Amino acid sequence: MRSSWRRAIGNVRSFVGNSMGGLRGGSNLASWVVAGTLAYFLWVKPSQDLKREQQQRAALAAASDPYRYVEKRKPIPDPQETGLIYGNKNRTNKSED
């Protein structure tokens, strides 16, 4: 019974070791450190710097001119004739009667 447990644990350790490139000990740890460092400097840090730069640009633009958005078009009037605008009741032409 104990040998089956030991064999199962050994198989799991073997699978994990092989899935990480087959390296063991210090070389395995060193390879993971190198890969993590490269990933950080190639992907994570540039995206963080870009996000920080965009936030700084947005803050600078908002602080420099708080009234920078100006509506350039006049609002379109409501085309309905029998709507609720200004208390316009449902008036119909009674000349047809």
Automatic annotation (TrEMBL):
Residues 71-97 are annotated as: Disordered. The chain crosses the membrane at residues 21-43. PANTHER family: SUBTILISIN-LIKE PROTEASE (PTHR37213). It comes from the Eukaryota. Keywords: Hydrolase, Membrane, Protease, Transmembrane, Transmembrane helix. This is Subtilisin-like protease. GO terms for molecular function: peptidase activity. One of its GO terms (biological process) is proteolysis.
